[in-house]
Structure formats: C-alpha cells, structure tokens
Specification:
Elements lengths: L3 H13 L7 H7 L22 E2 L6 E2 L2 H11 L6 E5 L5 H7 L4 E6 L2 H13 L5 E5 L11 E10 L4 H4 L2 E13 L2 E10 L2 E9 L17
Parallel strand pairs: 3-4, 3-6, 4-5, 6-7
Antiparallel strand pairs: 1-2, 7-8, 8-9
Length: 217
C-alpha cells in the first residue's frame, strides 16, 4: 500500500523543485491537494508519478504534475484574483488553483466529469470554486477574469476567450504549432493580446480547440 502523503511530498521534492517550480504558495498547494482523489480509482496508487493519468471514467486524462505546476506558475496568480480554468476534467487542477486565487470558475464539456469534479471538490472542502458544464462560453456570464488556464494542448486560442480577461490579464496554455508544443502566456492589453512561448511541454489534448484549415497562430 502506497503512503500517499509521503508520495505527495516526494512529488514536490523530486519532480517540482528540481524543475524550476519555485512559487512557495504553489508548492504548498501541490503538497496538500490529494491527486489520488481525482484520478480513476484503478490508478490511485500511481497518483504521484510524473505522468498523465485517466480521470474517473477513463475518457479524459489529468495532466502530469510537473508540466501542470509549471503552467500554473506561469499564470502568476495573486491572492484576491479570479481565475477561469478551461478543461477542468475531474477537478484536480481546479483544487490547486483554488488555493491560490480568491475564486475559480471551471468549465468541463463532459457532463459526467463536471458532476464528479463538483462532488469531489465539495468533499475536499473546496468552497471557492464554481463548476460549469460546457465550453468556455459557459463562463462568459462570470467574466472578466484576471487569469485563464487551458489545461491541455490546443491549436488555437479563440479571440472570444481572450476577451474574457481583464486588461492586463494573463492566459496560459500549451500551444501546438509546426509540430512543436510549448507553454505560452498571452497578456491582454486593451482589445489586443500579445504572447510569447516559455518552455516546451506536453499534456493531453484539450477538446474543442482545433485550428481551422488555413489558420496561422
């Protein structure tokens, strides 16, 4: 039987700290949220390996801890900020974001996973989150947000999503372009957004963000 608390500590010390995850609040959050509660029960004993694991039901994957932590760190979430989490899956990253922000609105297209995320977060005593079923458009009524995180690889970022940021707000996600996947941060300024890549990474693909034919990022 795996000692999950020990495994969680080892994840922080051996996977996160050596890979440039330095934010103390984020490290504390990753060291306290039980990933095993959010993965498929058949994989609970593997919860703290640095790999993607199936969410309950097996249709979606949770991102591996290290790239997830680096992506969250890139968002530079401050206390008091409001965050939109797109692709909540079973709610693991939502729970981490909730420890960093004042409020997290999370959207998940899979109805079963959205319901599971809401139940699990409630069971973990996470009270500053709102889980919505649907695409990112489901969160428009709750905009604007100081930060938006896309949990998964995308080929494009719709302009309508960037419009849900506050002026100066940040969107982070993994963008695939020319066969290469890198973490990007996009910062809104007025009606425009400027972005740049930060590091190479991989995550499961986030449904609903395919690039139309002829689109160039």
């Amino acid at each position: 039987m795996v000692d999950q608390a020990e495994a969680r500590w080892r994840m922080v010390e051996s996977q996160l700290r050596p890979n440039d995850v330095t934010d103390k609040r984020l490290l504390a959050a990753m060291g306290s949220v039980p990933r095993e509660a959010f993965v498929d029960p058949s994989r609970a004993q593997l919860a703290y390996l640095d790999q993607s694991l199936p969410a309950p039901g097996g249709q979606r994957q949770l991102a591996a801890p290290m790239p997830l932590a680096r992506l969250i760190q890139l968002a530079a979430i401050a206390p008091g900020e409001r965050v939109l989490h797109v692709g909540a899956s079973s709610g693991y990253a939502t729970a981490i974001l909730a420890r960093l922000a004042a409020e997290v609105v999370a959207v998940e297209a899979d109805a079963g996973l959205a319901a599971h995320a809401a139940r699990t977060l409630a069971g973990q005593g996470v009270g500053n989150t709102r889980i919505l079923e649907g695409s990112y458009e489901a969160a428009r009524a709750h905009a604007p947000f100081d930060a938006i995180m896309l949990e998964g690889v995308v080929e494009e970022v719709p302009p309508g999503l960037l419009q849900m940021l506050t002026d100066g707000g940040r969107l982070v996600g993994l963008l695939r372009e020319n066969g290469r996947t890198r973490a990007h941060v996009l910062v809104r300024s007025g009606h425009k957004a400027a972005g740049y890549p930060e590091f190479d990474a991989t995550m499961p693909e986030l449904p609903g963000f395919k690039r139309p034919n002829g689109f160039v990022f």
